[in-house]
Amino acid sequence: MADIRNFTLNFGPQHPAAHGVLRLVLELDGEVVQRADPHIGLLHRATEKLAETRTWVQSVPYMDRLDYVSMMCNEHAYCLATEKLLGIEVPERGKYIRTMFDEITRILNHLLWIGCHALDVGAMTMALYTFREREDLMDAYEAVSGARLHAAYYRPGGVYRDLPDRMPQYEASTWTSAKKAGELNENRSGSLLDFLEDFTNRFPTYHSEYHTLLTDNRIWKQRLVNVGVVTPERAKQMGFTGAMLRGSGIAWDLRKKQPYAAYDKVDFDVPVGVNGDSYDRYLVRMEEMLQSNKIIKQCIDWLRKNPGPVITDNHKVAPPPREGMKTNMEELIHHFKLFTEGIHVPAGEAYAAVEHPKGEFGIYFISDGANKPYRMKIRAPGYVHLAGMDEMSRGHMLADVVTIIGSQDIVFGEIDR
Amino acid sequence: MSAKLETLSQNLQKHFGDKLKSLKIALGEVTVEVAPADYLAVMKMLRDEADLGFDELIDLCGVDYSTYGDGAWQGKRFAAVTHLLSLNNNWRLRVRVFAEDDEFPAVDSLTGIWTSVNWFEREAFDLYGIAFVGHDDLRRILTDYGFIGHPFRKDFPISGHVEMRYDPDQARVIYQPVTIEPRENTPRIVREDTFGDAAHG
Lengths: 417, 201
Prior knowledge:
Chain A is mostly helical. Chain A has 18 helices and 8 strands. Chain A is globular. By secondary structure, chain B is of the alpha/beta class. Chain B is 18% helix and 28% strand. In chain B, 31% of the residues are buried. The mean pLDDT of chain B is 87. Classes of the chains: A mainly alpha, B alpha/beta.
């Protein structure tokens, strides 16, 4: 009788379905997974240590590079924690802008997730559709911050500047005819809010296209239903948050339970799954996109009617306006001190969390009263979810591992930090 | 919200009494500190008692207090800080435990209470060298295979000790001492309490 041994397989770190740099050591019995041991840290940049050597504002752009598909939500948690320590309030308009861009970010994230998840499972077309919509939303990012991905738009005290009155336009060139450019500019003739309103009107149609492509698709269901089932008890034990928790039937959403920004003033529902499998998590995230669309609409409505400041007028935290600096000595000093020495944050500690598209994203600060944080800890949702990989994939086939990775919505920027 | 925090702190007092070395409410958050000897028992009760009900462990991180306040720190050097969340009661709690020994910091592992703590403890071990007694798989997690030292300790330089490059002569990747000069663009300053008080404009 031949000696039968388990087969150990290296999955990644350069595998297209590993969503970045995951190295997964799989112990297989035939094609059935016995143990999954994720090796992470290949993208570790010690963001938390870097933050200890930077002033409070200088670390904001590092936040974009954590979960690089939901940039502004990361910034939001960072700014909330800083504001908590400083004890300052964000102006109402700033809160609504943050709420709107958090939801834009959620749609951005979920679009990338569904595109890549479907691509991993074998449905090539999805990615082409979702990247078409992402383009519009990234244009909105670009219009407010100048960057399509790493925005650094949220600042402690509010957001960097008010929404622009006009959108960037396409120009006729060798590749784009004047007629084509005119067509592309059609919904860009107004302000950013007009552009976004146009998007929110179009989005439900796109969304139903995704449903047509996937929801009743037999192959899609064969690959997702009953794969990676998590019971509510285990989900809590493993520290799951966000869609991973809601997919298991627990109605927990920080936007409802511990509201921040303007979430207590907008109307939306929290979708909850039943079976806790990959298919339910898919349905939960799909519905979340529609709810986000609804929130964006409400924010656009409010923002049109209520002009006002978007960042705190406390010049120990936020820079004074440019005009003030040119005429007023005190403003000039504020500006100089703010950009040479930075904000002084009172000694103490604070934890602030947001409902990030992937789960609970939290920032924990310890300050000793200096112009730099003493310790920053990033609570990344993906880190906890990936830790549950072993338990979720046991007893499944090798091909299901790819489904589970996709269903966890893994991004290595935040896991490795 | 503050009534809720009052209830939580009363429940904590009722269950633990003088087992809590300190109980603070600041910035809308409750923080307790426990002795390493009581740590495991307290955490287990925090999960199991219904009027506390912390069914999720959100985060655990190591902290190195050695340079806190530019040398003003008197207490122990290493701490493990845990953030707990109760879904039923909708409240949070922060628990801090200081390791007794500064040379070889060790605290009990919570892996028997919350599964989610597994990787967090590996991370704190990797970055700070805090050993978690009772953890059955305490390997490094974020740093490179074969890494030496604990990079988040305050005496570990931000530029590290070694750098890696491809050596064409030996035709392989080699490690060598770092060649970059550490530099600090904005110096770290702790001002007196009243300086630039943001809360008062």
